[in-house]
Design goal:
Oligomer: single chain
Number of strands: 90
Radius of gyration: 43 Å
Distance between the termini: 87 Å
Largest sheet: 8 strands, antiparallel
Strand content: 15-25%
Structural class: alpha+beta
Helix content: 25-40%
Length: 2011
C-alpha cells in the first residue's frame, strides 16, 4: 500500500454506527432501483406476451415459431460471426496496446476510447462513404462496385464496433496479470511468441469467452446496424420493431423479447462460471505486475500477426473518423479542395436547444449510470451480498434486448400512477441508465478483480468500516472501469431533436382567452379560406398548412363570452395607411398580401424562426396583432420527385412534381456512357464544371448552404424545363436538386430520356401501291385545300404541298391551318386528296406525321377516310360526292421506336381517289409527312377465318389440310415489288400452326381468362376507380402482344391498362390510347411515362368500356409478353361452400409461384452496359425488375405485388403446403372483410334488402325508407362494383404507403405483410371465435383505404380516414384503440373542457369522430357487416346512418366564416341519431352556423342530454359487456352516490382550504365517491366564476377515475386569468354517462405574482462560484453550465454562491457583483422576486490565482439595484433599495428606479441585471421575474395571509380631499387595489349578484402619473361608503341596501362614451363573498384617519355615480 494514501483511523472521528446505516441505505437504494427499473418493466412485458382476450394465452408464441423462425436463425448466425471476429480483433488490439510501451500504449488506448465515444451511425456513415457502391476506396481507388449491405456488412460493422470494448476488457486483465508466470517462461528460455500464445493467451481464456458471450448478446440485441446496413437481411430485433410500428402488435413484440431472454439466461450462467475462472488469472498484488513493454519484444510471425491484425483495426478507425473529420472542414469546389469552417459556423448558427438538452441527458446517464454500476459491482462481486447472483442476472437482462424493446417495457410499466413517467425526461434517463447497466458492472468487475482482497482486510485492520473501505480503497482503484462505463452510457444516451411550427403570443393581463383568425391568401392576395380558433393558451399549433402559402393571422383578446377587444383593423381609430417604426404601428403592411417574414426570394427578413421575434435593423421590430406570414420550410429540400422526361428532336422536355419545400431547381444532364455532367440554364460565366467525371453524380451541387450556392440567378423556377441542342437519338441521364432559403438539398434519383432524330420510319412496303420512283408510282395528283402558309416558301401551291405527302421524302410535310381536318363535317375535303392512275382495291393505309419539333409523336382525336360515292355502296356519311368512313386506327412503332399510323377499313374499297382527313385538338394542327396505300390482301382475314371463335380455340367447318398448306405458302411468299414479307408473318405462322394443331387434335395449354362484366365504375364508387381485371401477363414497352377477346356480345369495347412495376405515384399505370374490340387485337406496348433509371414495364389489365351487359360471357387469351403467376378467386371467395375449390386454386398458384420466383434471376443477364439500359435491358433486382410480380384477384380487391415478397409472406414460418394454402385463404378472406367493413361503415349495400318482409324486392314505396322503394334505396346506397388495387409502388419521401383513387401504393418491405391477414370469424350465433388471431393488416392499410373512401363534405385529411383504421383495430371490441395510447384521452378531455373554438386536428380530432361511434353503437362491432345490411334500420351503426343521410340530404350549405365540413357533421350527425348534437360539437369547438341553427331548430330533435364528449373506449367495452350479460347495473351507479372532494396542497405543501389565496397558477383537487367506485368513469370539474353578466359555470376539466386508489387527484391549471375567485364543483359520471349531483368544494382566489417561465434563461455574471470545477482549461469567468443555474431551478435550497472573479491577467475585476438574466426574447416585466441564499463560509480554491484555504463568506444581497435592457448595452434602472436577507423579497419596478412600489410600472426588456451594491460576494437561492399580474381588488388589508378590517362603520369624519368628507357612521367597504384608476371602476354586489346599495359613493386612492396610459398600473386602496342618510333611504319604494353578503368586482374599460358609460368594459378581478351581521349597527368601527388607506402621495380618483350605474347596467 505504499503507493496509496494511508487510511486514517475514523473511530474517533466518525460514528461507526452511522456509516453502517449509510452503507445499508445505499445498498437498499441500489437494489430497489434494479427491481423497479429493470425487473418490473420486464415482468410487465412478459405479462403482455401471455395476455389473451380471456386471460392467459400462448397463441402468440405459436405464431412466432411458425412465422419467424428464419429471423432467429439470422440473428444467431450474425451474432456468432460478430462475436467471434470482434473477440479475435479485441485480443489482437489488446496485445498490441499491452506490448507497445507506455507512450504508444496511451495513444492507442485513446483511439479505442474515441471509437466508443462516437455514436454508431457515424461509423455506419463512414463505412458507406468508404466502402459503399460508390465508396472512396471501393469505387474511387479500387474501381470496384461492391454491395456493402446484407449480413456481411452487419458482421463487419458489429465486429469493428464491439472490438473496442472487448480490447479494453482484455487489456484490463493483461495489465493486472500475475507476471511471475511470464518471467518464469523467459527464465526457462522460451521466446516472447511462445510465451504469448502458450502462457498469456491461455490464461485469458475466461475473459475471451466473456467477450464472446457479451458480443453475441449485444449483436442479437442490435437494432440500428441491421436496419442501416442490413438491407433486406432481417433479424429478430428488426422484426420486433416492425411488429410494434408496422402492425401495432405489442403482444407479439413482447413475446419476441421474452424469447430473447432465453439465450440471456444461458449466457449469464456461462459468464458467472467464467468469472470464477478469472480469479485464477490475476492476483491483484501490484508488485507482481509490470509494464509488458519492458518484458515483451514480439518478433517473427507473432509480431506480424499481432501488428497486422491490430494495425488493420486502427487503420480502419483512422479512415472512418478521418473521412468524417476531413469532410467536415473541407470543401470540394470544381475539383479544388479547400479548408473551410462554414459547416461549423452553420452548425453553431442553428437552434441548439434540443442538441444541448440531449447532451445534458447523456451526461446525466453517463455519470449516474457509471456510479451505480460500480457500486452494484462492488456489492455483488466483492461483498458477496445474499442473492447477489440473482441481482446480477436481473441487471444482465436489458443488455440482451434491443433498446426499443426495453422501451416497450417502460411504456407498459410507467404509463400510470404511481410511477407515471411517460412524457417526461425521467423515463428517458432511467431507461438508458439501466439499459446499459450490465456493461458498467461487467467492466467494473474486471477492474475490481484486480484489487487485492488483502487491501480490504488491511483497511479494516486500520479501523475503516465497510463504507470507508468502499470509499477510500475500492472506488479509487476502479478508474478504468469508470471510463468504460462513462463512454458507453454517453454513446447510448445521445438523441436528435425535432422542430415545430407554432404561433405564439404573450399573455395579456385581465383577459381570459384569445380568438385567432387565419386567412389563407391566393396568389393575388385575396382571401380564399378563413378559419377561426379560440383558446385560453398563448400558443396555437396550425396544421395542414401548405408550403409557400401566405396566411394572414389576426388575434383579439377575450374576457369571458361577453367582451372582445376587436381585431386590430376593427378597432376605433384604425388608420390602414399609418406607418411607424414597429410592426404594430405600421398599419400599411397589415393587409398588403406581402409576407412579413420573407422577401420575394424566400430569404428570411425581420423574422427569427427559432424565437418568433420580428427583428429589423437590430431593433425589436415587434409582433403585431395582424401579421402576414408565408409558410417557408425549416430545412433544405429533398431531391425532386415525379420527374418526367419526354424526348423531342435534339432535346428533352423535363417536368417534375411541385416540391413542398421549394420552387427553385437545378437540372443536370449527361449523355449515357459519358463522364461529366452539364448544368441546364447555365448562361453565365464561369460555367459549371463537374470536378469528378468518373463518378455517377454531378459534384459539388448538393447539400449546399446559401453561401455556397453562388449561382442562384440561374435557378429554374417552375416545374418544367426544355433542354435543347442535344444529340439526336441519344439517351441522357437526368438529375435534379431543389433549393430554398436554407440552401440546396440532395440529388434526385436518376431519370433517363432519349432525344428523337430525323430518321425515316421503317414502314412496311408489302403490297405497296405508291412505290417509290423518281416520281412516286401510280400517283396522278395529291392536293390540299387548307395549310399553314407560314410553314412554306411564298408561292408554294396547294398541289405542291399535297404531293409532299406522297413524295417518299419524310422531311417534307403537310400541316393544316387549324386543328379540325374533318372532325366537324364542315371541314371535310380540306385535307390531302390523292388521285391514282386507275382504280385499286384498298383496305389498308399507313401514314407518318411530321418528323421534327415534337410532331413525330402527334396524336389524333379523329381520322376519316373519304372515297367517291358509287352506286350501290352504303355506309359512312356523304358530303360533296364523297363517302366518309371511319377506319380502325392503330399507332405502331418500328424497331427504332418511330411512330406511324395504320388505318384499316372494315371492308376493302375499289377506288382511284382517296382523302385522308385527320383532326387533332384545339391548339394543335394535324400533320402528315408520307401516305402509303396498299393493295388489298386477304391473307390475314383468311387465316382468321380458319377459326370459329374469337379465341381461336375451335376450327371453322370445312377447314382442310390443303387450305392450311395454301395459307402457309402465301405467308411465306415474298412480295416481288417491295421484296418484303407480310409485316405480320410471324404471328400469322403462329396462328396457322395453331390451326394445324387443332386439325391434328393436339390439346392446347391456353391460359384463358374470364372477365366479370359486373366489375365496373358505376354508382357509389366512394373514391376508388379501379375496374380493371388482370390478364396475368407482364410486358415491356415495344413488346408486340395479341389480345384475343371472345364475347357473347360482339360490339363491346374494352380499355387496356399497362401498369409500371415499382412506379412513382404519377406513373402507376397508363391506359392504351385505343379501345379494344371483340376478336384479335394487335397491340404494341407504348413507352412508359416512368423515366427513372430502372426497368420499364408492368402488367396488363382489361376493363369494360362500353356496350356490355349486366351478365356477359367474356374470355380473353393473350399471346406475347411473359406469363406471371395469377390467382383469381372472384365470384368464389365469398361463399363458404367454395372453400375447397378456392383452396385448390390457391394450391396450384403457390406451386406456380415457387417455380416462377426460382427462375427469375435466370431470366435476366448477369451484366449490362449503358447501351443495354438505353434499350431497357437491366440486371435482375428484386425491387425493380418488372417480372418479379404477381396478381391476385378477389371480389373486392386486387393485389399487384412483388412475387418474391408474396411468396415470403406465404411461406414465413410455415413448412407444410396445407398451412400455406390456409394462410392464403385466410388472407383473402381478411382482405374481403376489411373492404366489407368499410362498405358497411358507409352504409353501403352489396345486395338489395327485403325491408317489408314480403320475400321479394319491389318498387313499392316504403315509409321506413323515406318514401323510396327497395330498389331505389338499394341503388342510392349500392356498394362499389369495382375493386381497390393494393399495388407495389415506389414510395415518395416520408411515406411507406399512400392512397390514390386507382390504387393503394405500398413499398417493397411492406408487401410480404399483405399476405398474413387473418379474418375475424363468427360462429353460427354471430359470436366471435378468434378474437386474438384476427388481424386486418395493421393501421397503415386501414389508414390508406380510409383515404380512398373518405367522402366530400365528411372529410378532414389525415383524421377522418383513420375511423376505418380504428374500426379494424378494435373490431373484436377488446383491443385498445390508438386513442387510448399514452395521454390520448387526457388530451381529449383537455380539449372538450377548454372552450376552444375551431376544428381539432390529429389524434385528438379523431377522438371527436370516434366518440360518436362509442356513444351510439351499442352492438358488437364485429356484427356491423350483418346489422348494416339487414332489414332493421334501427340497429345500423352510427356511421352507416351518417353516410346514408348525407347521401340523401347532401352536405351543408357554404357560409362565409364557417367550416362547411364541420357544419355538415353537426347537421347530419344530428339527423343520423335523431338528436340535437350541437352541445357535443360545441364542447369540441365546432360552433353551429346560422343556417345550421335554422335547420336543426326546424327539425326540433330532442337535445342529447348525455355528455358524450366524456365517453371513451373503456366505457363502451364495459357497456357492451353489461348488455351481453343483461346487467346494466354493473355500469350504473346508485342514485345515492355522492361525490366527496376537497382541495389538495399547494406547491409549497400548504393545505388549500375555503377562501385560500393561491399564489400559483393551479388549483389542486382530491376527489372520491362514497360508493360504487368501480362504476365511475370519471369526474367533471366545474368552475364557477364571476363574469361581466353575473356568474357563469363552465366545465374546466374531466379526469378519469384513478383505478388504483379511491382518491383521484386533479389540478386545474389557470394560465390566462389572475386575481379572480373560483368556486369549484364536481360531478361523477358512471360508465353509462349518468351523472351524480354536484358537490361544491368551496371558493379560492388565484392571485399569483405573474412569474415568467425560466426554462430558456441564460446568465452572465462577474462572479465565480466555489462549487464549480475550476482548472487550467476552464478559462476565466463563470461556468455557464455550473451552479449558477441553481438560480432558476425552482428550489430555494440549492444556492448560487459567487465572489468577484479575475481577468486574464489574474487581477480582481472591479465593480459590484452582478447577475444578468437573458430571457431569450423581449418580454413585459414588472418586477423581481429575490430569495436569499444561506450565508456560509467555505474554502475557496482558485488554482494558481488565490491563496489556498482562504476563508470566504458568501453573503445574501442587501443593498441592490435592478436594471433592464433590450440589447445588453443600454441599461435603465428600474428599482433600488435594501433586501431583507431573512425572507423572500418581491419588488415592483417603477420609472424613478427607487424603492417606491406604489405604481406598478411595466417595461419591455430581454435582459435584467441584479447588482449587489458595495458587496464582494453574493448568495442567491432563487430569482423570479414577474410579468403583468393584472388588476386586483381586495376587501380589507393583508395580514398574515388574510385580508381583514375591510367592512365596518366610519369612526369619525374623514376628509379625503378639499371639501370632500366621508361622514362618521357611514358604512365602509374598503381594501387594497391595483390597477389604473383612470380606467377602473369597482362595484359592490350582494349575494344575489345585485347592487348592494342603490345609492353609494366610491373613490380610488393611488399614485397616478400625469401622462397615465391605458397600460399603466398603480397600487393603492379604494373606499366605498354609504352615508347614514343613504342607509335609511327608500328609493323608488325599495330599501337602498339589499343583501346579507357583499363582494367587490373590479372592471376595466377603454374610455367613456358621451353618456358616461364605459366602453370596452370587462371584469378583471373580484373578491370573496363576506358575511354581514344581520344587525348592521354591530359592524366594527374603522378609523380611516389612522389607517393606511391612503398615503400622502396618493391621488384621489372619484368614480362618478353615473359611471358606476352604467357599469352595473353593462353587466
Amino acid at each position: 500500500m505504499n503507493n496509496r494514501k494511508p487510511i486514517k483511523k475514523r473511530a474517533s472521528l466518525y460514528d461507526a454506527h452511522f456509516y453502517n446505516i449509510l452503507d445499508y441505505f445505499i445498498l437498499a437504494i441500489l437494489v430497489a432501483g434494479v427491481l423497479i427499473f429493470i425487473l418490473y418493466p420486464l415482468l410487465c412485458m412478459v405479462k403482455q406476451s401471455f395476455a389473451g382476450t380471456e386471460g392467459f394465452s400462448t397463441e402468440v408464441y405459436k405464431s412466432i415459431f411458425s412465422d419467424n423462425l428464419v429471423l432467429v436463425k439470422n440473428s444467431v448466425f450474425v451474432g456468432n460471426l460478430s462475436a467471434f471476429f470482434s473477440t479475435i480483433a479485441g485480443l489482437l488490439v489488446a496485445i498490441c496496446v499491452w506490448v507497445a510501451g507506455k507512450k504508444m500504449g496511451k495513444v492507442l488506448e485513446t483511439i479505442l476510447l474515441i471509437s466508443m465515444v462516437s455514436p454508431p451511425f457515424i461509423a455506419s456513415l463512414a463505412y458507406i462513404q468508404l466502402f459503399g457502391r460508390n465508396g472512396l476506396i471501393t469505387k474511387g481507388i479500387l474501381g470496384l462496385s461492391l454491395n456493402p449491405y446484407g449480413w456481411l456488412g452487419v458482421v463487419i460493422m458489429q465486429t469493428l464496433f464491439f472490438a473496442s470494448l472487448n480490447a479494453l476488457m482484455i487489456l484490463g486483465m493483461l495489465k493486472k496479470m500475475d507476471m511471475s508466470l511470464v518471467r518464469a517462461s523467459f527464465d526457462l528460455g522460451a521466446s516472447s511468441g511462445y510465451t504469448l500464445w502458450r502462457i498469456v493467451v491461455p490464461l485469458l481464456r475466461p475473459i475471451l469467452l466473456s467477450c464472446y458471450l457479451l458480443s453475441f448478446i449485444r449483436s442479437i440485441a442490435d437494432f440500428g446496424t441491421p436496419v442501416v446496413i442490413g438491407g433486406r437481411f432481417e433479424t429478430v430485433s428488426t422484426e420486433i420493431y416492425m411488429q410494434v410500428i408496422g402492425y401495432s402488435r405489442l403482444d407479439k413484440s413482447a413475446a419476441l423479447n421474452v424469447l430473447l431472454l432465453v439465450p440471456t439466461i444461458i449466457v449469464f450462467v456461462l459468464y458467472r462460471y467464467l468469472m470464477k475462472k478469472n480469479e485464477k488469472v490475476i492476483d491483484g498484488n501490484s508488485n507482481k505486475t509490470i509494464e509488458a513493454g519492458n518484458t515483451f519484444r514480439l518478433r517473427g510471425m507473432s509480431a506480424i500477426v499481432v501488428w497486422l491484425g491490430a494495425g488493420f483495426f486502427f487503420v480502419m478507425m483512422a479512415l472512418e473518423y478521418g473521412s468524417i473529420f476531413l469532410n467536415s472542414f473541407s470543401r470540394n469546389l470544381r475539383g479544388k479542395i479547400t479548408f473551410t469552417t462554414m459547416y461549423l459556423k452553420a452548425l453553431l448558427e442553428r437552434d441548439m436547444d434540443t442538441f444541448v438538452r440531449s447532451v445534458e441527458y447523456a451526461l446525466i446517464v453517463a455519470i449516474v449510470g457509471s456510479v451505480i454500476g460500480m457500486l452494484l459491482s462492488y456489492y455483488i462481486e466483492r461483498r458477496k451480498i445474499k442473492l447477489g447472483g440473482v441481482l446480477d442476472f436481473i441487471i444482465t437482462l436489458p443488455y440482451m434486448l434491443p433498446g426499443s424493446c426495453f422501451g416497450i417495457g417502460y411504456i407498459l410499466a410507467f404509463n400510470h400512477s404511481p410511477l407515471k413517467f411517460t412524457g417526461t425526461a425521467a423515463i428517458v434517463v432511467l431507461n438508458m441508465i439501466y439499459k446499459q447497466m450490465s456493461i458498467t458492472t461487467k467492466a467494473s468487475f474486471s477492474s475490481l478483480q484486480q484489487i487485492s482482497i488483502e487491501l480490504d482486510a488491511a483497511a479494516r485492520d486500520l479501523g475503516a468500516n465497510k463504507f470507508l473501505v468502499m470509499k477510500d480503497v475500492i472506488l479509487p482503484n476502479m478508474k478504468q472501469a469508470f471510463a468504460t462505463g462513462f463512454i458507453n452510457n454517453f454513446t447510448s444516451g445521445t438523441a436528435v431533436g425535432n422542430e415545430h411550427f407554432v404561433i405564439g403570443w404573450d399573455h395579456e393581463p385581465n383577459v381570459t382567452g384569445y380568438e385567432i383568425k387565419i386567412e389563407e391568401l391566393n396568389d393575388n392576395g385575396t382571401v380564399s379560406r378563413i378559419d377561426t380558433y379560440r383558446t385560453s393558451e398563448n400558443t396555437l399549433r396550425v396544421e395542414g398548412v401548405n408550403g409557400y402559402q401566405i396566411y394572414r393571422m389576426s388575434i383579439q383578446s377575450l374576457s369571458g363570452d361577453d367582451w372582445k377587444s376587436g381585431y386590430k383593423d376593427e378597432q376605433e381609430g384604425y388608420d390602414k395607411t399609418a406607418s411607424g417604426d414597429t410592426n404594430l404601428l405600421n398599419n400599411s403592411n397589415d393587409k398588403d398580401g406581402i409576407p412579413d417574414n420573407v422577401d420575394a426570394d424566400y430569404n428570411t427578413q425581420g423574422w427569427n424562426s427559432a424565437s418568433g421575434v420580428l427583428v429589423k435593423d437590430n431593433k425589436i421590430y415587434g409582433a403585431d396583432s395582424i401579421v402576414e406570414l408565408q409558410v417557408i420550410p425549416e430545412t433544405r429540400p429533398e431531391g425532386p420527385e415525379g420527374i418526367t422526361v419526354k424526348g423531342v428532336y435534339k432535346g428533352l422536355a423535363v417536368s417534375w412534381k411541385s416540391h413542398k419545400k421549394a420552387k427553385d431547381y437545378d437540372l443536370y444532364y449527361r449523355k449515357v456512357g459519358t463522364g461529366a455532367w452539364t448544368k441546364a440554364n447555365d448562361p453565365n460565366e464561369p460555367k459549371y464544371e463537374d470536378s469528378n467525371p468518373t463518378n455517377d453524380i454531378p459534384d459539388n451541387v448538393a447539400e449546399l448552404t446559401p453561401e455556397q450556392k453562388t449561382d442562384k440567378d440561374e435557378l429554374i423556377r417552375g416545374t418544367s424545363y426544355n433542354i435543347n441542342n442535344l444529340e439526336e437519338g441519344a439517351t441522357y441521364e437526368i438529375k435534379m436538386t431543389a433549393t430554398n432559403h436554407h440552401g440546396t438539398g440532395g440529388l434526385s434519383k436518376t431519370y433517363l430520356g432519349t432525344t428523337t432524330k430525323l430518321i425515316n420510319p421503317i414502314v412496311p412496303n408489302y403490297k405497296l401501291i405508291n412505290t417509290p420512283n423518281d416520281k412516286t408510282n401510280h400517283i396522278v395528283s395529291a392536293k390540299v385545300k387548307h395549310y399553314r402558309k407560314e410553314e412554306y416558301p411564298e408561292g408554294t401551291t396547294p398541289e405542291e404541298i399535297g404531293m409532299m405527302t406522297v413524295d417518299n421524302d419524310y422531311s417534307t410535310y403537310w400541316m393544316n391551318d387549324s386543328w379540325d381536318g374533318g372532325y366537324n363535317w364542315g371541314a371535310l375535303g380540306i385535307t390531302p386528296h390523292i388521285t391514282l392512275d386507275k382504280e385499286y382495291t384498298i383496305d389498308t393505309i399507313r401514314f407518318t406525321t411530321r418528323r421534327d419539333s415534337g410532331y413525330e409523336n402527334q396524336g389524333f382525336s379523329d381520322i376519316k377516310i373519304g372515297i367517291p360515292v358509287k352506286d350501290g355502296e352504303t355506309g359512312g356519311t356523304i358530303k360533296n360526292g364523297y363517302r366518309y368512313i371511319y377506319p380502325s386506327v392503330k399507332a405502331e412503332l418500328d424497331k427504332n421506336k418511330n411512330k406511324y399510323y395504320t388505318l384499316v377499313l372494315n371492308e376493302p374499297v375499289t377506288t382511284s381517289e382517296i382523302i385522308i382527313a385527320p383532326s387533332t385538338w384545339p391548339g394543335d394542327s394535324p400533320t402528315i409527312s408520307e401516305i402509303k396505300l396498299y393493295h388489298y390482301d386477304s391473307l390475314k382475314s383468311d387465316v382468321a377465318n380458319l377459326f370459329k371463335d374469337d379465341l381461336m380455340l375451335e376450327l371453322s367447318e370445312g377447314v382442310t389440310q390443303e387450305k392450311i398448306d395454301e395459307l402457309i405458302n402465301r405467308a411465306k411468299t415474298i412480295d416481288p415489288e417491295s421484296m418484303e414479307y407480310h409485316p405480320d408473318q410471324d404471328q400469322l405462322l403462329k396462328d396457322l400452326q395453331r390451326a394445324q394443331d387443332l386439325l391434328n387434335d393436339i390439346n392446347l395449354s391456353d391460359n384463358i381468362k374470364i372477365l366479370d362484366s359486373g366489375i365496373r365504375n358505376q354508382g357509389q364508387t366512394i373514391g376508388q376507380s379501379n375496374n380493371y381485371q388482370a390478364l396475368g401477363v407482364a410486358v415491356k414497352p415495344g413488346d408486340k402482344v395479341n389480345i384475343y377477346i371472345g364475347s357473347s356480345r360482339k360490339d363491346t369495347k374494352f380499355n387496356l391498362a399497362i401498369t409500371q412495376h415499382n412506379g412513382e405515384s404519377s406513373t402507376g399505370y397508363q391506359v392504351y390510347n385505343q379501345k379494344l374490340s371483340v376478336g384479335k387485337n394487335e397491340i404494341v406496348i407504348p413507352e412508359s411515362k416512368f423515366n427513372m433509371d430502372y426497368e420499364k414495364g408492368g402488367n396488363l389489365y382489361l376493363s369494360f368500356d362500353s356496350n356490355y351487359d349486366e351478365v356477359q360471357n367474356v374470355q380473353v387469351r393473350v399471346s406475347g409478353g411473359t406469363e406471371i403467376p395469377h390467382l383469381n378467386v372472384n365470384n368464389l371467395i365469398d361463399e363458404a361452400a367454395n372453400e375447397q375449390k378456392v383452396k385448390e386454386l390457391i394450391r396450384e398458384y403457390i406451386k406456380n409461384l415457387k417455380s416462377y420466383v426460382a427462375t427469375l434471376p435466370s431470366r435476366y443477364p448477369s451484366q449490362v452496359s449503358a447501351e443495354d439500359k438505353i434499350n431497357n435491358i437491366y440486371r435482375y433486382d428484386a425491387e425493380t425488375s418488372i417480372l418479379n410480380t404477381t396478381d391476385i384477384e378477389g371480389e373486392r380487391i386486387t393485389l399487384s405485388l412483388p412475387a418474391d415478397q408474396v411468396l415470403k409472406g406465404i411461406q414465413g414460418g410455415l413448412s407444410s403446403e396445407e398451412e400455406q394454402v390456409q394462410r392464403v385463404y385466410d388472407t383473402l378472406l381478411a382482405w374481403e372483410q376489411i373492404m366489407k367493413i368499410s362498405y358497411a361503415q358507409q352504409g353501403l349495400l352489396e345486395n338489395p334488402v327485403d325491408f317489408d318482409g314480403d320475400g321479394k324486392i319491389t318498387n313499392n314505396k316504403l315509409e321506413k325508407l323515406g318514401g323510396k322503394s327497395e330498389n331505389e334505396y338499394f341503388n342510392a346506397n349500392r356498394a362499389p362494383r369495382n375493386r381497390i388495387n393494393i399495388k407495389y409502388q415506389r414510395m415518395f419521401t416520408g411515406a411507406f404507403m399512400y392512397a390514390s383513387s386507382h390504387h393503394v401504393g405500398i413499398g417493397y418491405g411492406s408487401s410480404a405483410g399483405m399476405m398474413t391477414g387473418v379474418p375475424f370469424k363468427l360462429d353460427e350465433n354471430g359470436k366471435l371465435i378468434n378474437s386474438e388471431d384476427g388481424q386486418l393488416f395493421g393501421w397503415g392499410i386501414g389508414h390508406e383505404i380510409g383515404h380512398v373512401h373518405d367522402r366530400p363534405g365528411l372529410t378532414y385529411a389525415e383524421v377522418t380516414n383513420n375511423i376505418l383504421a380504428l374500426m379494424t383495430q378494435t373490431y373484436n371490441d377488446e383491443n385498445s384503440s390508438r386513442i387510448e395510447d399514452g395521454n390520448g384521452y387526457e388530451d381529449v378531455y383537455d380539449r372538450v373542457t377548454s372552450q376552444s373554438v375551431g376544428v381539432p386536428k390529429g389524434r385528438t380530432g379523431l377522438a371527436m369522430f370516434w366518440q360518436l361511434h362509442l356513444a351510439y353503437d351499442d352492438t358488437y362491432t364485429y356484427n356491423m357487416i350483418k346489422t348494416n345490411s339487414d332489414g332493421d334500420l334501427d340497429n345500423d351503426t352510427f356511421y352507416s346512418k351518417l353516410y346514408r343521410i348525407t347521401r340523401e340530404k347532401g352536405i351543408a350549405p357554404s357560409e362565409t366564416g364557417y367550416d362547411q365540413t364541420a357544419q355538415t357533421y353537426i347537421m347530419r350527425a344530428s339527423d343520423a341519431v335523431k338528436k340535437d348534437l350541437r352541445p357535443f360539437f360545441k364542447a369540441w369547438g365546432l360552433v353551429a352556423s346560422p343556417k345550421t341553427d335554422e335547420y336543426l331548430n326546424k327539425m326540433d330533435y330532442p337535445v342529447e342530454t348525455r355528455d358524450i364528449q366524456y365517453i371513451n373506449d373503456e366505457a363502451r367495452r364495459k357497456k357492451l359487456d353489461a348488455i351481453s350479460k343483461n346487467d346494466m347495473s354493473s355500469i350504473t351507479m346508485a342514485d345515492d352516490v355522492a361525490v366527496s372532494a376537497s382541495f389538495g396542497t399547494d406547491d409549497k405543501g400548504n393545505q388549500v382550504t375555503e377562501k385560500t389565496y393561491l399564489n400559483q397558477k393551479s388549483v389542486p383537487l382530491n376527489i372520491s365517491v362514497n360508493k360504487d367506485n368501480d362504476k365511475i368513469l370519471g369526474y367533471e370539474i366545474i368552475r364557477k366564476e364571476a363574469a361581466a353578466t353575473g356568474f357563469k359555470e363552465v366545465p374546466v376539466g374531466f379526469v378519469e377515475r384513478n383505478k388504483e386508489s379511491n382518491i383521484t387527484e386533479y389540478k386545474d391549471v389557470i394560465d390566462s386569468v389572475n386575481n379572480r375567485t373560483f368556486t369549484y364543483k364536481v360531478k361523477a359520471y358512471d360508465y353509462s354517462l349518468n351523472k351524480s349531483s354536484e358537490f361544491e368544494l368551496g371558493t379560492v382566489k388565484v392571485t399569483h405574482d405573474g412569474s415568467l417561465a425560466k426554462k430558456d434563461w441564460t446568465f452572465d455574471t462577474n462572479t465565480i462560484s466555489p462549487d464549480d470545477t475550476v482548472h487550467e482549461n476552464t478559462g476565466h469567468g463563470h461556468n455557464e453550465d455550473g451552479s449558477i443555474n441553481n438560480i432558476k431551478d425552482n428550489d430555494a435550497s440549492t444556492v448560487y454562491n459567487g465572489a468577484i472573479g479575475t481577468d486574464n491577467t489574474g487581477q480582481t475585476l472591479s465593480g459590484d457583483p452582478y447577475v444578468t438574466i437573458n430571457m431569450g426574447t423581449s418580454k413585459q416585466v414588472v418586477g423581481l422576486k429575490y430569495t436569499p441564499g444561506n450565508t456560509t463560509a467555505k474554502k475557496f480554491s482558485f488554482k494558481r490565482l488565490f491563496t489556498k484555504n482562504k476563508e470566504v463568506t458568501y453573503d445574501s444581497i442587501s443593498d441592490y439595484e435592478v436594471l433592464v435592457s433590450s440589447d445588453n448595452k443600454k441599461w435603465t434602472k428600474v428599482h433600488s433599495g435594501k433586501f431583507d436577507t431573512t425572507k423572500e423579497n418581491t419588488i415592483y419596478f417603477n420609472e424613478s428606479g427607487n424603492d417606491s412600489n406604489k405604481q406598478l410600472w411595466s417595461t419591455n426588456a430581454q435582459y435584467v441585471k441584479l447588482v449587489a451594491k458595495g458587496a464582494k460576494t453574493i448568495s442567491i437561492g432563487e430569482l423570479e421575474l414577474l410579468g403583468q399580474p393584472g388588476d386586483n381588488i381586495e376587501i380589507g388589508s393583508y395580514n398574515n395571509g388574510k385580508y381583514t378590517n375591510g367592512i365596518g362603520r366610519l369612526k369619525s369624519d374623514y376628509t379625503y380631499a378639499k371639501d370632500k368628507t366621508i361622514p362618521a357612521g357611514s358604512i365602509l367597504i374598503t381594501g387594497e387595489y391595483r390597477g389604473d384608476p383612470a380606467f377602473n371602476v369597482p362595484l359592490v354586489l350582494n349575494e344575489k349578484d345585485g347592487n348592494y346599495a342603490l345609492q353609494s359613493q366610491v373613490i380610488l386612492l393611488a399614485e397616478l402619473p400625469e401622462d397615465a396610459q391605458l397600460g399603466e398600473v398603480a397600487q393603492g386602496s379604494w373606499i366605498y361608503w354609504i352615508t347614514p342618510e343613504q342607509e335609511k333611504a327608500i328609493i323608488n319604494g325599495e330599501q337602498n341596501i339589499k343583501g346579507s353578503q357583499v363582494k367587490a368586482e373590479l372592471y376595466r374599460y377603454n374610455k367613456l362614451d358621451s353618456t358616461g358609460a364605459p366602453v370596452g368594459q370587462r371584469l378583471v378581478s373580484d373578491t370573496f363573498l363576506y358575511e354581514l351581521p344581520s344587525d348592521l349597527s354591530k359592524l366594527p368601527t374603522i378609523d380611516l384617519a389612522t389607517s393606511k388607506a391612503r398615503s400622502s402621495a396618493a391621488k384621489v380618483m372619484e368614480i362618478d355615480q353615473n359611471t358606476v350605474k352604467k357599469a352595473f347596467e353593462n353587466r
